[in-house]
From TrEMBL:
Protein's UniProt keywords contain Transmembrane helix: no
SUPFAM superfamilies tied to this protein: Lumazine synthase (SSF52121)
UniProt similarity note: Belongs to the DMRL synthase family.
Positions contributing to (2S)-2-hydroxy-3-oxobutyl phosphate binding: 87-88, 129
Protein name: 6,7-dimethyl-8-ribityllumazine synthase
Gene for this chain: ribH
Length: 157
């Protein structure tokens, strides 16, 4: 078994998805959102069932995700950001806070919040993972649909 589910096993026609994305490093985050949207469409998620919002930076992403969970009827949120290490400790603090914040939402709400945050040591790593055929957003869209179907017991092992 591969590490990713196949598109034809993921019927997202009744799945409602929220996407919250950071504008920091928008060259990468916008491409990640596009990849995510494309894979949602490939899983038959309807355009009207996708709600997207932007927030300033990755640090704001967990609160943006919480906002979607509180104010919409989404089944899942894809949390998108791109952190690139700079000269200070800022990167480490934000990475830790964001990953903790996103896991907390998963367990508090009992709904999947997909960790779509790139934590890169340099621009090259961000580029490789967000633009072109290795756009990680594609996998995050599929993961979102898979987790909802798992919760709805529509797919299993
Ligand atoms: C990001 O997504 N955000 C970055 N931010 C912004 C941060 C947040 C602000 C306000 O709360 O702190 O929006 O998420 C950064 O400030 C930095 C700078 C890091 C540094 O070395 O000065 N980087 C990012 C980032 O890479 N990605």
């Amino acid at each position: 078994m591969g590490k990713e589910a196949k598109f034809d096993t993921l019927d997202g026609s009744n799945v409602k998805v929220g996407i919250v994305a950071a504008r920091w490093n928008d060259k990468y985050t916008y491409s990640l959102v596009e990849g995510c949207r494309e894979s949602l469409v490939e899983c038959n998620v309807k355009a009207e069932n996708i709600t997207g919002i932007f927030v300033p930076g990755a640090y704001e992403v967990p609160l943006g995700a919480k906002h979607l969970l509180d104010t919409t009827d989404v089944d899942v949120v894809v949390a998108v950001g791109c952190l690139i290490k700079g000269a200070t400790m800022h990167f480490e603090y934000i990475c830790e806070a964001v990953s903790q914040g996103i896991m907390r939402l998963n367990l508090d709400y009992g709904k999947p919040v997909i960790f779509g945050i790139l934590t890169c040591l340099n621009e090259e790593q961000a580029q490789e993972r967000s633009i072109g055929e290795h756009n990680h957003g594609i996998g995050w869209g599929k993961t979102a649909v898979e987790m909802v179907l798992l919760q709805q017991k529509k797919i299993g092992m």
